[in-house]
User: Fold Dephospho-CoA kinase from Sphingobium nicotianae.
Amino acid sequence: MAHRPFRLGLTGSIGSGKSTVAAVFRQAGVPVFDADAEVHRLQGPGGALLPAIEARFPGTTGPMGVNRQALSARVIGKPAELRALERIVHPAVGTARQAFLRRQAGHRLVLLDIPLLFETGGERAMDRVIVLSTPLFVQRRRVLRRKGMTEGRLRKIRAAQMPDHLKCARADFILNTARPKWQTRAEISRLLACLRRSLVR
Assistant:
């Protein structure tokens, strides 16, 4: 009988380096569930969530899926509208996450990359949680490089996320991702070695 895999949650604020860290885990042979990638799939061309999103937010979808800038303009900084979108998206992502876990039943360890892990109470389903932390000036520099990002949008996004110090207070492991990538990789290697040793016992 396949064993339930150890669930390692990964979270952090926007611009904290989640995609980079998740890639390191993949390279180390750890199956990764990427919540953001799943949202893109569900909202992309032919995505299962398009009818519900269009019904609630008319004019925000088209042949190529969700118009992310149009949808963001409708929900960022508007708590009631954001909650309405979350009621559409979060259950679907949760279903996809459970399907992923069933597929990985033969693995000892999996990583679940979930940006709003604490904000949605998702940490209760994790065995341990890694929080990625980076100074605000680094976060700002990274995020403002993104197409369509502005200072105003960044402020609204940060306002909807749990502050970094509160995430860190609830973390089992904290990775400082402002350092050179080789240092982050080395720290992940040490963490994985420790976890794998503990899972063998």
